[in-house]
Amino acid sequence: MYFSTHIIRTTLLILSSSILNLPIQANGYWTRVSLRIEGHNDIFPPEMPSLFDDTVFTAGHIVTAHEDKSGSHMCDGTNNGAHTTPGATITSTIDDAVTKWEGRWSKKFQEYFITSISEQQAGRDYFWAMFVNYKPVDKGGCQSKVAADDQVLVGLGKAGARALQASASPSRVVAGEEVEFTVVDGANGAPVEGARVQATWLTTGVDGKTKTRLYREPGEHKFRAWKNGDIRSTEFTVTVTEEMSSQAVGDAGFRGCNQ
C-alpha cells in the first residue's frame, strides 16, 4: 500500500485547514485504487513479476515526468476539458506508485504521452495501454479519472491491446486430474484464441480454452495467461493436493510404460 509525499502533504493541509476553517480543493482528497503495471510480454519471461501490483492512495496533482524539459503540469482530470471537476487520474496513480516514469507533454491536449515506466520503453509497435476495470480508456492518463476501488491496469501492448483475464476450473485438484484453463478479454468476456498459459505452454483454442492434467507437487501453483500484443493476466492459483485419483494413477503408469 503506497502513500506518496503528495498525499502526506495533503493530509497535513486537511488537518490544518479543519483547524483554520479553510476550504479544501476537490483534488486534495485521495482515492484508493488497485494498480498493476505490466511490461513486455515478448521480451521478458512470462514468470517475471509485474512491474507493480499493489494498492495506491492517489489524488489529482501536479506531476513531472523524468527528464521532461517542459516542466511540471497539473494532472487531475480537468486536462483538455475532459472533466469539469478535478480528481484522481491514471497518471497521478502511476506517479504516486513508481519512482521513475518518462513522457512527452502535449500542450495541445494538456496530456502526457508516457514513453517509459521503470526503465521499460515504449517503441514503434508497442505503447503504454491503459485500462480501468479491464476496459480500455479513450483518453490520456491525465484526462482519465479513477474512482475508489477501481482496478487500474497499465501495460505495454500493441494497437488494440486487450487486458486478459484467466481462470482455472477446478481450482483445486488431486495430482494428475484434468484442469481446464480459460482466457478471455477482460473488457467483454470474449474468448481469446492463441493465448498461452504460463508453465504449461498450452495454447487456447477458438473458445479461449485449453486442458491438461496437472502432475505437480502438492501445494499452490500460480499461473498467468499471455499473448503477444495483449496485456497478460494477473496471477491465478491452482491447488494440488497429495492424493492421486485412481484414473490419474492409471494414466501416469501408462505414460511411464511408454517412455
Helix content: 10-25%
Q: Tally the helices: what do you get? A: 3
Give, in order, the helices and strands.
EHEEEEHEEEEEEEEEEEEEEEH
Mean pLDDT: 86
- The structure class reads mainly beta
- How far apart are the termini? 50 Å
Roughly how many Å is the radius of gyration?
22 Å
Largest sheet: 6 strands, mixed
Instruction: Provide the spatial order of strands within the biggest beta sheet.
Output: 1-3-2-11-9-10
Q: Spans of 5+ residues with little confidence (pLDDT < 50)?
A: 8-27, 254-259
Tally of extended strands?
20
CATH level-two architecture of the largest domain: Beta Complex
CATH top level assignment of the largest domain: Mainly Beta
Remind me, CATH topology of the largest domain?
Answer: Ferric Hydroxamate Uptake Protein, Chain A, domain 1
**Total separate domains:** 2
Which percent range describes the beta-strand content? Answer: 35-45%
The rough form would be described as: elongated
Task: Please describe the topology of this protein.
Layout: E1 2-3, H1 5-20, E2 31-38, E3 52-58, E4 61-63, E5 73-75, H2 90-97, E6 101-106, E7 111-117, E8 120-121, E9 127-132, E10 135-136, E11 151-157, E12 164-169, E13 172-175, E14 178-185, E15 196-197, E16 202-203, E17 209-213, E18 219-223, E19 225-226, E20 236-244, H3 246-257
Walk me through this protein's architecture.
The protein has 259 residues and is mainly beta. The protein has two domains: 156 residues, Beta Complex (Ferric Hydroxamate Uptake Protein, Chain A, domain 1), CATH 2.170.130; 85 residues, Macroglobulin (MG2) domain (Immunoglobulin-like, Sandwich), CATH 2.60.40.1930. It has three helices and 20 strands. The strands form six sheets. The chain has a six-stranded mixed beta sheet with strand order 1-3-2-11-9-10. A three-stranded antiparallel beta sheet has the order 6-7-8, covered by helices on one side. A hairpin with a 4-residue loop joins β15 and β16. The chain is elongated. The C terminus is likely disordered.
